[in-house]
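Hi L., both proteins are below.
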Amino acid sequence: MARDVVKELLEQVTWHWENQARPRLEGLTDEEYRWLPTGEGWTVRRRDAEVPESVNLQAGTGEWLLDYGHPEPTPAPITSIAWRIAHLVIACFGPRTHSHFGGPRVHWEDWDFPGTAAGGLEQLDEAYRNWVAGVQDLSEDALWAPVGAAEGPWAESPMISLVLHIHREAIHHLAEIALLRDLWAHREAAD
């Protein structure tokens, strides 16, 4: 029975990834990757670039830094495709793969954020592959076991709840990325 549940859990995200989300990322350019439809918001920027007022923190160790703010402004700033891909890698797939499946440690502060679409997609593809491999190996007991301290206030929630949550997050953010691609493609029509 566990294999059937794991198969269904994986199909929830892999079907979307293979048939909708990942194909929509083909042809992504560097300019589009970092583009902000409102002209201002959060993205990845060169270390020496000026930042908008909404950015009071930046993270990263390399040439490119990720914008963010604490506390987050209201309303939350528009974010670029680069920012959303980084969010999937660093906040969704990466930490859970590390905590639950022995993957590499990921953290905003010590991450080398790519400034190119190819680099961002490479990180996203790897984070996705690592997550799927970890979920694929779950046993029935593991699906229903508490996720543990790595999930803070949700420590007593079963692993199946975390898997479903991460899949919802991935589908949600990948759909946002698809919308940004649509806006990019039609940006001249708005002028």
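That was the first. Here is the second:
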Amino acid sequence: MSRIQAVFQALKQQNKKALIPYITAGDPHPKHTVNLMHSLVKSGADLIELGVPFSDPMADGPVIQRASERALVHKVGLRHVLQMVKDFRQQDDKTPIVLMGYANPIEAMGAEAFIKAASEAGVDGVLTVDYPPEECETFIAGLRAAGVDSIFLLSPTTETARAKLIVKQASGFIYYVSLKGVTGAANLDIAEVTQRVNEIRTQTDLPIGVGFGVRDAATAKQVAAIADAVVVGSRMVLEVEKSTDENLLSNVSALMQELRAAIDG
């Protein structure tokens, strides 16, 4: 059983929902990332989604774009991100880590080399925004053989036939994008999200996480009522952006505790 499966199974037994914060590796500075990851766990994170900085993102809104730019100033690349995961694993071998990023850095490293390095570093899942499910069967098979889950996005505009292909290839959990557009784009329509999540449940037994529109504790609570996991990205990165070196960990921890209390409540 993978770390991701184990976490969702344990939470289900406790009648709890997963809280999955997203941060961009290397933001605001590479020296903070591992400490931030540990702080997220201590403050209630069940999984961590770690963004790989990229210069030309297509799914990330302005907040996460700025985070990538801050990380890229320090030349943080895929190999650095994998080293951060390895460093995190020295103290935490239980919390699942999902890398979220784009195909270009993986292609530059080479898919086989990346899969080997990710597995050795302790990565549990990979979400590659621009790897279409129709074209990455070999990549998915390689991840599966290495014990790494393939996380896919489903959106409000995903057609039924394509959704069936995605849930067939996915493992770990399904990430449902709660709104049209990029991360942090707009207020989500909870009724529409509920309907779509229920439709997805008829196609898969995998846990379903919802993200891209969770901007506060109240929204997190609404999402937790219908999904298995709440993913908080732009709001978390915004907290990083407005913090100083001195209050970074305390500010992020306070936000996490607020979200955790809302979800559990």
